[in-house]
Amino acid sequence: MRARTIQAQTVERARILILKADGKPIDDIAALIGMNRKSVMLCLKKYKEGGVENALFDAPGRGRNAEITDDEKTWIINIACKKPTDFGYAAETWTYAKLTAHVNLTAEASGYTRLSTVNKSTVHKILDDAEIKPFRINYYCEQRDPDFDRKMHNVLLVYKQLSMQFDKNGQLVPFEDDEAVHVLSYDEKPGVQAISTTSDDLLPNGSNGAIQRDYEYKRLGTVSLLTAIDLQTGEAIPLVSETHNSKDYIKFLRILDDKYPAGDKIRIVLDNLKVHTSVETRRFLATLPGRFEFVFTPKHGSWLNLVEGFFSKMTRQMLRGIRVKTKEELISRIHRYFDEVNEHPVVYHWKYKLDDVDITEEIGTDTLLLEQSS
């Protein structure tokens, strides 16, 4: 009985090889012989690995061959490391289900017949072992400023020299009469939305421990927030505007000019936004020669600007989830937040990479003379 079974098995395998040589597809071969697709593919895989003898007969004592070879794993990983769009699909990233379906569909034509029936969990394991996550996007910031390192070093030099103005107890050492330089970190936060609810919030009570809010809302418009942080006192200085242009920026510079004693220098760390260097801005600065000087962060270097930390804190503490009845209420609450912050101002200190900065270097500043305008 055993001999006849082995003989029949050998005949079936031989028929598989003959039918495949005649160009029959796998599904047709399985139907003609009366066995499942997986058994047909296993026979063809053994033929590919060791020829006719290997396909027809089981070698004694060899045990079961590895179902998925390193070459097959590499083929799957190579697909996972490309985008679905490279294969004509609409999706931006793979899901395990979509990737497995693509592997099943294209495996035979690519010479990896065994993978025509590989399942999702196996594909998942192969990618996990290779630490490939084709469904995930990690963002980074491309360095597009060829002068990035020099500009970054210049900003850090501002912070290094600034740190020397504080004593060991963290108290600001008073200016000498001829050395008054006020250092500020400045940026804008445009598009702050005024949003109102369509129904009143339900406050926490015995049955609900959280605020209950209707999903529907109404947009009332946006405002722009222009802000500077005094890096010596911690004071936050706001200007809320309906627009975000050179006129608004100049209005803010006027606020700073009125705030600090005449004759003192105002040094501002900021990005190189067009309105900061516009002809209109330069014309205004020409009326106050020597009053302002600017230290520009490199392109895509906003993380170097300390005011970004203030904006992040403000979003967490006040703006997230805010609902107002009017845009004017939003403006009022923003000003109220600044009043609260300035009751107990916090001085922002920069520490990252300051040990590499030579305190004796001269800071490179720009006074934005009118003739420098492009």
Automatic annotation (TrEMBL):
Q: Which Gene3D superfamilies match?
A: Ribonuclease H-like superfamily/Ribonuclease H (3.30.420.10)
Spans through the membrane: none
Q: In this protein, which residues make up the domain named Tc1-like transposase DDE?
A: 191-331
Pfam families from the entry?
Answer: DDE_3, HTH_32
In its UniProt record, a GO molecular function of this protein is:
nucleic acid binding
* Xref: InterPro entries: Homeodomain-like_sf, RNaseH-like_sf, RNaseH_sf, Tc1-like_DDE_dom, Transpos_IS630-like
Signal peptide positions are none
The name this protein goes by in its record: IS630 family transposase ISCARN21
